[in-house]
Amino acid sequence: MSEAISTNDKPLIKQTWLRILLFILMYLIGSGVISIIFGFLIMIIQGLSIQEMMSSSGNLPMMIFSQFMSLIAAGLAIWVFRKFIDRKSILSLGFCIKGRLKDIIAGFLFGFILQGLGFIILYFFNQLTVTEIAFNANTFFGFLIMFIIVGIVEESIMRGYILSNLMEHMKNKYVALLISAVIFAVFHGLNPNITVLGFINLILAGFVLGITYIHTKNLWFPIFLHISWNFFQGPVFGFEVSGINTKAIINHNVTGNDLITGGRFGFEGSILITILLIVITFFIDLYYRKKV
Description:
By secondary structure, the protein is mainly α. It is 67% helix and 4% strand. A two-stranded antiparallel sheet has the order 1-2.
């Protein structure tokens, strides 16, 4: 017997676009406020000046600190909006992990294969030359921690909150996916050295990260794909991550055409990744359509 839905189960704010906008604003403002508060605490504890604090913002510990502040802000925004605005559980965003080991493994492998395949193609077609191979454990695991946080934060926001809300209130889930992918690209629109093709590829990346979600409404595949994508792209294969430099195991000089290599924006700005993202999105979608 079905139960009647009480008015308390309905969203406090009916307009989906307004909920999403207010959620994004709370996350951005919260992230800034939390970073400032904890930043000042670090300054006081370590006796740093504002100039010293600012000059250290580009080092790995501070990058991890910044992402950790984003994680706190994202968690707070999601908790407030799911509990008091959406009136639904946080787990219903797609955090249920039971039976999702295959998704976790597949997501991690997809990121590795995409970046590894791109690197091999560029290497064998003389689009880059390897200059050094060096391993530093502190850097390796530091960036791994940072990109784990980045993957959790961005997927919880983009696919978890934004895409799930769009799907609930739009008849066409592919339109919802498109809108969320564009929002994802806009969030990265101020990254250093971004190009038109890089922006398009970020939209396509939003499709790859969200295509399983519109069929399964589970976040573990996109979370681990996101982690793997960033980690192997930057700290392992030595590309810029959306225009941001990271210390890598494989250091190289990009010598080929920017259209092929991605130039200073990194492999995310390459026409090769455009093709790979389109192909992978198509086949993942086809796989889930056949399962229905």
